[in-house]
Design goal:
The protein is mainly beta. It has one domain: Sandwich (Jelly Rolls). It is about 5% helix and about 40% strand. The longest helix has 6 residues.
Length: about 180
């Protein structure tokens, strides 16, 4: 596995190193020893997945408040997404900065998202599926979010948002702590 720093502190793009032969390929998508050696958390308590019918579907921007903060490892298993993260940690040098990542099925890449980040994605193809490793159990009372089009962040989405939940569309404007 290769661990590639992003522009946001502690967020990492993980590239698997597939081994190919006449049958196809094999890759390791999780290795506790290698991830711990790269300084990443490795204790995951949930494995979630989502399926999205249409391109232009936006899910996010979600986070869990402490003490229920989550580390996530995101993989696009079918189709293609623009995955976006925002650093919401007030003490971080990249506080309020965002970065987007093009993830697609078969690209052998995953995104490691540290605690304290908002996360969301926009599907860029129909019939897109996403897989998540999550370090903390979902706690409804700790859920938070920021609006996908909040001017505080100015996210440059790769395509028009055409499908979004009422909840995700209604997050209030971000107010720094």
């Amino acid at each position: 596995m290769r661990f590639i720093p992003t522009t946001l502190k502690d967020a990492v793009l993980i590239e698997a190193e597939p081994r190919e032969d006449h049958r196809g390929w094999f890759e390791r998508t999780f290795c506790m020893e290698e991830m711990a050696g790269a300084g990443l958390k490795t204790g995951f308590v949930q494995h979630n997945s989502s399926y999205n019918h249409a391109a232009g579907t936006l899910r996010g921007m979600h986070y869990q408040r402490a003490p229920h903060s989550e580390v996530k490892v995101i993989t696009c298993t079918r189709g293609r997404i623009q995955d976006v993260i925002i650093d919401l940690r007030p003490d971080s040098p990249t506080y309020l900065k965002w970065e987007g990542f093009d993830l697609k099925a078969g690209d052998h890449r995953q995104l490691y998202i540290p605690e304290g980040f908002a996360h969301g994605y926009l599907t860029l193809e129909d019939a897109t599926a996403v897989s998540y490793l999550v370090s903390a159990a979902y706690t409804p009372g700790a859920e938070g979010g920021v609006r996908w089009d909040d001017p505080a962040f100015g996210i440059d989405w790769a395509a028009e948002v055409s499908v979004i939940s009422e909840k995700d569309a209604a997050w209030p404007d971000f107010q720094p702590a």
